[in-house]
Amino acid sequence: MAPERDEIPSDLALRVQALESLLIEKGIVDKAALDALVDTYENRIGPRNGARVVARAWVDAEYKRRLLDDASAAIAELGFTGMQGEHMVAVENTPTVHNIVVCTLCSCYPWPVLGLPPAWYKSPAYRARAVIDPRGVLRELGVHLKDDVAVRVWDSNAEVRYLVLPQRPAGTEQLNEEALARLVTRDAMVGVVRELELGEPA
Amino acid sequence: MNGIHDMGGMHGMGVVRTELDEPVFHAEWEARVFALRRAAGAWRRWNIDAMRHSVERVPPAEYLAAGYFGRQFLGFIELLIERGFVTRAEIESGRPAPGVPRLSPPLQADDVAQLVARGAPSSRATPAASRLRVGQSVRARDLNPLGHTRLPRYVRGRHGTVIRDHGVFVFPDTNAQFRGEQPQHLYGIRFGARELWGEGADARDAVYLDLWEDYLEAIG
């Protein structure tokens, strides 16, 4: 658990509840709409979407070209559009390039393809360090880069959102697109994982 | 503003800890804060830049202590008051002031799927002059505005290279203050890690940001 979460004032839950009641009473929000928003991001939109984009790019060279050329349009082909994914760019890992995404100023993240960001992505530690010490952060998270690998850090400071296209693991020639998508993890699409596992996906 | 939110390059924030099988929301109130901000936002009394600025203005100690959804909640209350949705007295009492008419209609459950799928693009069709070209050397200007900006401190005054022209986008610095969108070109800029962090940084590495025309000057 991210350290900052331990210090949350205990009355916050009550204050949020009071605000919700007030806003409903004033006609500013509707309870069923709030429930629908929560349900959307808890159950409908998540990293399985991004995994489908990645798997498609691995099996379809034309699609990959479109993804790297105009990610917003290529991702929309699979139906993933909207809030916090209006302007997408895909960045490709290669044997000599590793990409990692951060938002130092808040916690911007490509919602339509990855869902809402995990706590570590929003933590001050990650936001502060990913730009000045990406190799240190990666090492702590178990990513050991070879000597000839350059690190590209993408700070999502504007309205462009970044999706890392990980390398297809060796030994997956026999797998179809659906099976490939199951190998792709959220953390690989943010760039804090480099090598995807062939076993049970996270 | 040179606030606590502008964290890039800070030390002392600890190690990055990931969590196995992390839930989307760790508590019910987090989910409600998320939904309340989106639902109230559907009235369009503010924009995404004003929303971000409301979070940045949470006092630094509270900003850190409250966590992500906590600071969003604290900023949201101020935004609701500033944009005339509620009064501070109503927040304190938890009751609507007598005689104030109800707003209608709020965002409905049936509208949510469309709101989410459509999003709110920040690009604009407005033509704008583009002074910079891909491949050009630039310097990020040393600007220290008191209001909202998306020019992080760690790149101010630093040299980089234009790698992409994203087209014309709403300018957050004015939009956050409701002083107009001032659409202008947004560029992808590459900064070498050593240019930003000195000789201790790895010469192979680079940091990329997206910076608006007004943040940049051509050099050479």
Output the structural class of chain B: alpha+beta
CATH level-two architecture of the largest domain in chain A: Alpha-Beta Complex
Estimate the mean pLDDT confidence of chain A: 94
Would you identify the regions of chain B where 5 or more consecutive residues have pLDDT less than 50? none
Shape of chain B: globular
CATH class call of the largest domain in chain B: Mainly Alpha
Domain count of chain B, please report it.
2
What would you call the quaternary organization? heterodimer
Task: Give a brief outline of the structure.
Chain A is mainly α and 202 residues long. Helix content of chain A is 45%, strand content 11%. Chain B folds into two domains: 28-118, Nitrile hydratase, beta subunit (Cyclin A, domain 1, Orthogonal Bundle), CATH 1.10.472; 137-218, SH3 type barrels (Roll).
Overview of the structural elements:
The complex is a heterodimer of chains A (202) and B (220). Chain A is mainly α and 202 residues long. Chain A folds into 2 domains: 11-42, no CATH class; 46-190, Alpha-Beta Complex (Nitrile Hydratase, Chain A). Helices cover 45% and strands 11% of the residues of chain A. Chain A is built from 11 helices and 4 strands. Chain A has helices at residues 12-25, 31-44, 47-59, 61-69, 71-77, 111-114, 119-122, 124-132, 134-140, 177-181, 186-190; strands at residues 88-92, 97-102, 150-155, 161-165. In chain A, the strands form 2 sheets. A two-stranded parallel sheet of chain A has the order 1-4. Chain A has a two-stranded parallel sheet with strand order 2-3. The longest helix of chain A has 14 residues, at 12-25. With 220 residues, chain B is of the alpha+beta class. Chain B has 2 domains: 28-118, Cyclin A, domain 1 (Orthogonal Bundle); 137-218, Roll (SH3 type barrels), CATH 2.30.30. Chain B is 32% helix and 15% strand. A 5-stranded antiparallel sheet of chain B has the order 4-3-2-1-5. In chain B, helix 1 (28-41) crosses helix 3 (60-82) and helix 2 (48-56) packs across helix 3. The longest helix of chain B has 23 residues, at 60-82. The model of chain B has no long low-confidence stretch (mean pLDDT 97). Strand 3 of chain A pairs parallel with strand 4 (206-212) of chain B, so a sheet runs across the interface.
